[in-house]
Amino acid sequence: MTTDSPLFDVLVIGGGVNGTGIAMDAAGRGLRVMLCEMNDLASATSSNSSKLVHGGLRYLEHYEFGLVRKALIERELLLNSAPHIMWPLRFRLPHRPHLRPAWMIRVGLFLYDHLARRERLPGSCAIRFGPDGPLQPHITRGFEYSDGWVDDARLVVLCAQAAFDRGAEIKTRTRCIQARRKAGLWHLTLQNTVTGERQQCRSRALVNAAGPWASALFADTLAMPSPKQLRLVKGSHILVPRLHDEPAAYILQSQDNRIVFVLPYQQRFSLIGTTDVDYEGDPAKVAIDDAEVAYLCNLVNGYFKQHTSPAEVVWRYSGVRPLIDNAEGEAQQASRDYSFELDAPEGEPPLLSVFGGKLTTYRLLANDATTTLCRFFAEAGPAWTHTAVLPGGNFSTQARLAEALRSHYPWLPDALLQRFVRSYGTLCHRFLQGCEQLEDMGEAFGDQLYQKEVDYLIAHEWAGTADDILWRRTKLGLELNDEARERLQRYLQAPDTRPPTS
């Protein structure tokens, strides 16, 4: 490797929420950053979550008061940082006295309300369920509390955009195949996973934020033993036609002490999950099995009047949670907290590895990780993300933004407008500006996706395939028919029609 190869202050391996969060934070402190991701952004764990910004009510049962408090503090910060992709959500917990006594739930909710300051979310309360509600008649009492919803994959993309806006280089479909210390620097070989092309670069510090692959990266790329092993836990979800018309989510207790959420999703569906099953094997090949589908359906059918079945599942997905391995207890009891391992021999460039973590605490994790790295960079600026607004989030409320968009683009169908508000916030002006009618949006891929939006996703959000667009940048994979998908795929494969990328 020559001295002509690019030199970075920090190179981050992993394009999930932790990796992009660290890249954003470090770039905002004035460091020169590169992030490489072997697939698409948010292509693994970070797009296969329960899509919640929450403190983790059930973690109180395992006495993880510190983790819950951290998550509750972050919940408030995150809801303020991205009002387009995050919003408050009320949860209803039907009381089943044979599973958990009412006093235990009341104590847990009291702690949940008071472990951290609440500024925008109402507290918990006891409620009664009437005969006209969605639950079965014998369930008459319960509790209600607040948490938040997040579009997980878009959160990752927005962090990557924020990093890019501050000078970071974002390389998707790029695997780090070798990293070695030499002459006080990391010397790295990166390979494009589509073309096979290789490039060399150097970095003053290296971050291992590879998620489920964090331990394996040591043997595969770094040629050194991993300081920690991860406990891989599979969490699976199913999507079914909407089970009720209420705006609230439900949190259901199971006989085996697991908790399952029933969440309103994309107007027409209910998202049900998650399971907690220990997993061995390649995280890229994780998949929900029939037993998990049956488990989720049976649990829901024990609570709701409207039953569902495996035959009604319209979408299913699984993610692998990389949890800190303490080799004890059931999978659902494993801690969702995070830890770092800093390897920095005297005179050698540092390696910071991230183990564990959860979506809600990604900003705090990134802040702590970047602060740790900044010991090696005297020129680095101060912490800043606690007041940061993610790209597109510079507006007061979704209702006011929708009103402004109607004024600017009166021709925009309401369903499209609402999707743009909840996906892009003010960023949608980038592809709507100059359009005076729907036809100006270019080629239509079905009635909900247009060329202008696709071009924007390619040029500014690192989208390269139909799946990138239909499942991670949007959720239109649930809406578009086969003909529309094929038309989109043809467009993406025609290089002359595609705009240059960021």
Automatic annotation (TrEMBL):
InterPro entries: DAO_C, DAO_C_sf, FAD-dep_OxRdtase, FAD/NAD-bd_sf, G3P_DH_FAD-dep
Membrane spanning residue stretches: none
A Pfam cross-reference name: DAO_C
Cofactor(s) of this protein: FAD
EC number: 1.1.5.3
Domain (Alpha-glycerophosphate oxidase C-terminal): residue spans on this chain: 385-491
Domain (FAD dependent oxidoreductase): residue spans on this chain: 9-327
Keyword entries, A-Z: FAD, Flavoprotein, Oxidoreductase
Gene3D superfamilies named among the record's database cross-references: 6.10.250.1890, Alpha-glycerophosphate oxidase, cap domain, D-Amino Acid Oxidase, subunit A, domain 2, FAD/NAD(P)-binding domain
Reactions listed under catalytic activity: a quinone + sn-glycerol 3-phosphate = dihydroxyacetone phosphate + a quinol
Stated family: Belongs to the FAD-dependent glycerol-3-phosphate dehydrogenase family.
NCBIfam families (UniProt xref): PRK12266.1, PRK13369.1
The protein's name in its UniProt record: Glycerol-3-phosphate dehydrogenase
Source species: Oceanisphaera sediminis
